[in-house]
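Notebook B, p. 112. Complex prediction, attempt 2.
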Amino acid sequence: MPDFECRLKKYRQLKELTQEELAALVGVRRETIMRLEKAQYNPSLKLAVDLSRAVEAPIEEIFIFPK
Amino acid sequence: MNKKAKIVGMGIICLLMVIGASLYAVKFNDSRLVVPMEQPYEFTVKDLPMHIAVACMVLYVFYLCWLDCQKAKKDAAAHVTRRISPKLGIMGLLGFLGLMGFYTYNAEGRVAPFLFFLFFGFFGFFYEGKMSNTFMDERYVENKRRAQRKAHRIAQGIVYVTLFLVAMAEGRILKATDTKLIILVIAVACSIAVDIFLGEYLLYQYDHEE
């Protein structure tokens, strides 16, 4: 299980996007967004960048890894 | 008429042609090409209906394979999994035909029917069907690799353990070469079945795990 905090849900809701809409924007399934929001899936760098662009928030504020 | 009905219709026509040609051969052609022939084959005009019917059936099967390839290509281009029904998982029951091997070995010394055990792998269609027409994003691809890696490892394990046990038991418990052959054929068939089934089952589990 990936060990990080994910604030994707917060930024997605700020942009008023549904999971389905965000999934379509970054080219993944809704289930993947769901797992990401629960911090159950560690995305590739490309997906992380795509998500960051889609919700207009820096990667390090969406995915928070403990030091 | 839609495309599916046309394809099924073509299949029924081909089947009826084979049945018709068989009936014709039994009634008017001394059952040639229906029952095994003892003399070397020589063409006669009366064999023509059977040749045409079989050729049509073969062409129909090739056409079905071609259609399936086209569909698979289309799905791959769209990055979605192939569309199959979970009901196809019932084909896994064909694996029980492997038990025929015990009869054929005793009656005729044939071990080939043991290979039917690999059909147990078709139970995997049940899980593949559940993941049918799914968009293959990076998480899906990652899970698929993970599932296949584990399935390969378990299947290889079955073969290695069987080989080890057969080698260790040689001369003590297992004396007849036939018995060793049967055990190895069953182990290889079962390991392939496990590989096919687990690849789909684990993928489904990984995809749905919380």
